[in-house]
Amino acid sequence: MLNRFARVLPIVHWLKDYNGGTFVSDSLAAVIVTLMLVPQALAYALLAGLPAEVGLYASMIPLVVYALFGTSATLAVGPVAVASLMTASALGGIAQAGSPEYVGAALVLAALSGLILFAMGVLRLGFLANFLSHPVISGFVTASGILIAGSQIGHILGIQGGGHNLLEMGRGLWQQIAAINPVTLVIGGGVLVYLYLCRRFLKPALVAIGLSERLADLSSKAAPVSAVIVTTAAAWFWDLGEAGVKLVGEVPSGLPSISLPPLDPAIWSTLLPAAVLISLVGFVESVSVAQTLAAKRRQRIDPNAELIALGLANVGAGVGGGSPVSGGFSRSVVNFEAGAQTPVAGALTALGIAIATLTMTGLLAYLPKATLAATIIIAISTLIDFSAIRRTLSYSKADGAAMLATIVLTLVHGVELGILVGVGISLGLYLYRTSRPHSAVVGLIPGTEHFRNVSRHDVRTDDATIILRVDESLYFANARYLEDTVLELVSARPRLKNLVLACQAVNDIDASALESLEAIDKRLAEADITLHLAEVKGPVMDRLRRTEFCRELRGSIFLSTYEAWRTLVNATPAKAKEKPVTQGG
Amino acid sequence: MLNRFARVLPIVHWLKDYNGGTFVSDSLAAVIVTLMLVPQALAYALLAGLPAEVGLYASMIPLVVYALFGTSATLAVGPVAVASLMTASALGGIAQAGSPEYVGAALVLAALSGLILFAMGVLRLGFLANFLSHPVISGFVTASGILIAGSQIGHILGIQGGGHNLLEMGRGLWQQIAAINPVTLVIGGGVLVYLYLCRRFLKPALVAIGLSERLADLSSKAAPVSAVIVTTAAAWFWDLGEAGVKLVGEVPSGLPSISLPPLDPAIWSTLLPAAVLISLVGFVESVSVAQTLAAKRRQRIDPNAELIALGLANVGAGVGGGSPVSGGFSRSVVNFEAGAQTPVAGALTALGIAIATLTMTGLLAYLPKATLAATIIIAISTLIDFSAIRRTLSYSKADGAAMLATIVLTLVHGVELGILVGVGISLGLYLYRTSRPHSAVVGLIPGTEHFRNVSRHDVRTDDATIILRVDESLYFANARYLEDTVLELVSARPRLKNLVLACQAVNDIDASALESLEAIDKRLAEADITLHLAEVKGPVMDRLRRTEFCRELRGSIFLSTYEAWRTLVNATPAKAKEKPVTQGG
After folding, report:
1. A132, A309, A385: which is closest to B480 by C-alpha?
2. A338 and A452 share one domain
3. CATH number for B525
4. Rounded distance, CA A298 to CA B205, Å?
5. Under DSSP, is residue A71 helix (H, G, I), strand (E, B) or coil?
6. Closest Cα in chain A, distance from residue B194 (Å)
7. B55 and B186 share one domain
8. A interface mutation test: which of B283, B404, B471, B490 has the most A CBs within 10 A?
9. A448 with B453: Cβ contact below 8 A
């Protein structure tokens, strides 16, 4: 009973060992993550086209919910860059950015993706996320990073940006190039340069003056806080809003109220596809961060429990006034390095955000949007990884093609189409490859019991017996191809008496392939050739044994290829002969 | 040059050997097929909701075009039952059955599916048809047969039928049950019983009175002709049209005029999905009939050339006033058994239909629709194969599930959704299986160089070295699963020093899986375990050799699992030990 309970509420596991020391560690981590999260929450709300407070609300209830249900001790949940970009893209066609309808749709999007994640967790469908291949995810994140940077250029220049792909963004910027606000540009450009320099040089400098590696790293990651404080003070002191600098403006003080998101079925069904994509991408990113961090401490996370936890966290966002959330990479790393021991750190971070929302919104009103834009650009610059393209292409053209297509389509058409086509290409290429399975005629390596490809190795073969190794599971998409391959082989060998299919690489034979095997057996029989099988695996044999094919097969099913060779070739030794020695390929 | 020409026009191959004997054989076959095709062409036009002449037109130009480009000597092209049902379903939402717009849309559908098939042939995409698995096709054909029978019941009863699934059909029949026309029912029911009796008893009876097996078979298949003649004569003699019996009515005499189908882009784009489905289903059926018949005479057909031939035949239907065509099963068998030697038989059949259209339309006006409905029901009764469901389910639950879903959805929702969901389920289940690959810890069979599953065989194992055989290609969908499997194995074995991945069943390692292997190597290294590979296949090794993973792997890559065992286990003989003999599974 306790075990079942613990599976649903992982808190049961760690709470019994909780003590003062753990609490101090968690509290320290929470303070540092809070400092990092306040500007990020505002910035990602800006990126998603939402009022600033939505980002803060997304950093409260979801964090508490995740602390209760999550299996990772260190995953820092909240608004993240890629999900915010996808939110902006999903809501763009529904309402005017920033309007009450737009905010309502954002809550629907959070609740909907929460319900999707929760359902996937309950149905144990976590494996679906595996269909987002590494190259597609990596290409998608790189392209998203570029789009995010592009979407923030307008804020740095003090003009109206907008657009959901590079073309729209470029057009938008070009049309307003005359309206650039120089004061905004000074602030945005200044913060950009400052944050870049901090990232490059602050940590080594701090290490040089004697700080520990970890402390130096954490301090340099708090640089955006100083930029926020300085530019906010400057905007207040010189009243820069009057000079045309766009500020965050009035943020309602106080905690979010709990209420259902709008229940208009039309909005829910319109947002469904986008919610599915946001759920999957958010889940894949969260799980990979959580697994990386867990492995470092030899802990494990449970992907299906994570689905439930992230799902509930997003439902929490939807009823608690927030936009979609997932596990953020940089914040999770900071949380880990700052010493977070349990999910309590996440709950305490939510407390920190709540205190900030109650006390600092008056000050945040003067924060220039250009500062937030610069924060975003520096934060996502680590997402962009061009070297992965070269690396992937050099290993596999198919993977490289899927990656390039994802990047190009995301950039020129937007996030949804980019990732969908990427997944489609990955799947399509995989299916195409398995639909034309590699197979090889093999021969015996003299002096061993091993068989290798006749065209790559110097091996013994026999005129009356041919051994065909099939290098793929047999299923509907390649069943006919096997028929063709066998018939072609046979038609070229008039003296053939036995054909052995070596099945060590055949992990499954489905009903279509079974029919093809029956057809092969029948056609070979008409040509007076006997079909044999060898090295059929246990699970495959279990099923074959029940079939008519197996009962009517005139040939044998050999345990090993060598046994087939000994029986079929050594039984007719007159015909066996050494293949002339040639240069093996 | 001639060779290239011959690839496009197979006629070059056989025309040089053509002689009087071949012509006599072809002519005889053409006469028999024409007798069979006239009522079928009218019946399938009725089934598709089209005027009778559209069926006749679909039996002229397309047959000539196929004779020029087809690679099968015996495939009888023309209107077929399943494609006609799919045509009715596709056009149902576009216009009133029988209206000029409806006929125009049918021509568009033919031309469109012709262009799709042609493009697939040119791009060598014939492999796409393989994704319609045997169980899905078989289930779809069975369900279509039931729907076709259901759609004809109204004609037998003399009432208005209609509907594209069983529910709609049932409702339509129920609402009009009071309007049953008794004379029609007598004709329809009489023909149904007559044709059934002919099918059951005529052939044995003819054999009994001394006819040859083949002649008896062909004669019994001409039974519908006698039913057509008798009921047409009866309708004319007693003027049954006045008694409420629905007749075929005025069929325009003369040949079809060549003209472009309507070029309204809205209709073309609306019909595109249906055209894709009709193309694929028609192609799969045609190719499987053609291959079966070709194999009997040790001939071969070229699937990509067939795509081009069927594509052009359908374009011919579209510009020649006909509905979509494909290779019909029963007519092709008759053509084959009647002795057709070359595609000339098909061209002569077209000539026969042309003669019938020019001379007999006045008579056909009196043909009762109930006769045609009875012909259809008997013809499609061979399509319905319930035993396949049981057979498939007993072999594979996954295939059985795809088949059942296809049948149920086709029956209750219609043809398009049925086949789409069937294909989706087949693919989904295949991907699900490969995303959780089978793997087995293997041990050495004493006295051999062979390794088998430790849980199924009595084999030697070693505490410090574990050999994991991976039974699937490694790709994005199962990469993470492999990581989990390896880490779980390792965590249960504290004395482990070496982990060997036996890769004889790994036919591919994609970029995602490569990253997982890197992650596995890194994590094993942290636990002081060395990762080795064995039996990596040639093509896989070629690619791995270029990677950083291969350069940084601390373990070895062994040619065979036995070599790995000899090196790793026999080098530390103190630890090697015989596994206690247990009952193998």
Report:
1. A132
2. no
3. 3.30.750.24
4. 81
5. coil
6. 35
7. yes
8. B471
9. no
User: Hey, which of A172-176, A531-535, B386-390, B415-419 has the most confident mean pLDDT?
Assistant: A531-535
At B423 the pLDDT is 85
Would the CB atoms of A514 and B395 count as touching at under 8 Å?
Answer: yes
In a domain, B27, yes or no: yes
The pLDDT averaged over each successive group of 10 residues in chain B (585 residues) is 59 80 90 90 93 95 94 92 93 89 95 96 83 87 92 90 85 88 94 92 88 82 88 93 89 86 90 93 87 72 89 96 92 88 93 92 90 91 88 88 93 89 85 82 89 88 92 84 85 88 88 89 86 91 89 91 90 45 35
Q: Mind listing the pLDDT tens digit for each residue in A34-83?
A: 988 998 999 999 999 999 999 999 999 999 999 999 988 899 999 999 99
pLDDT digits (tens, 9 = 90+) for A372-404: 999 989 988 888 889 889 989 988 888 899 999
Please indicate, yes or no, if residue B196 is contained in any of the structural domains: yes
The tokens of A335 are what? 């949380």
| CB-CB under 8 Å, A396 with B511 | yes
Domains of chain B: total: 2
Residue (of B331, B425, B334) closest to B140 by Cα position = B425
Q: Where in the sequence is the domain holding B115, given as residue range(s)?
A: 2-250+259-427
Could you give the count of Cα atoms lying within 13 Å of A143 in the half-sphere of its Cβ? 29
Residue type at A18 in one-letter notation = Y
The single-letter DSSP state of residue A226 is: H
pLDDT at A531 over 70: yes
Q: H-helix or E-strand containing B173?
A: helix B166-175
Within 8 A of A536 by CB-CB distance, chain B residues are none
Q: How many inter-chain contacts (A to B, CB under 8 Å) are there?
A: 156
The identity of residue B554, as a single letter, is R
Residues of chain B positioned with their CB less than 8 A from the CB of A435: 127, 130-131
> What span, in angstroms and rounded, lies between the C-alpha atoms of A492 and A484?
13
Contacting residues of B for A438, CB less than 8 Å apart? 507, 537, 539
Of B369, B401, B427, the one marking the end of a domain is B427
For residue B385, the distance in angstroms to the closest alpha carbon of chain A comes to 15
CA distance A169 to A413: 11
Q: Strands A498-502, A451-453: parallel, antiparallel or unpaired by DSSP?
A: unpaired
- Closest Cβ opposite residue B395 in set A476, A538, A547: A547
Q: Which two tokens stand for residue B438?
A: 């089978």
Overall pTM > 0.90: no
pLDDT at A506 exceeding the cut of 60: yes
Q: Which amino acid is at A299?
A: Q
Please list every residue in chain A whose beta carbon sits closer than 8 Å to the beta carbon of residue B545.
none
Region A426-438: what's the mean pLDDT?
A: 82
Whether residue A433 is contained in a domain is answered as no
In this structure, which amino acid lies at residue B452?
R
Residues of chain B contacting A395 with CB distance shorter than 8 Å: 511, 514, 543, 546-547
DSSP string, B426-492: HHHHHHHHHHS--EEEEEEPTTSS-EEETTTS--BEESSEEEEEE-S-B-HHHHHHHHHHHHHHHHT
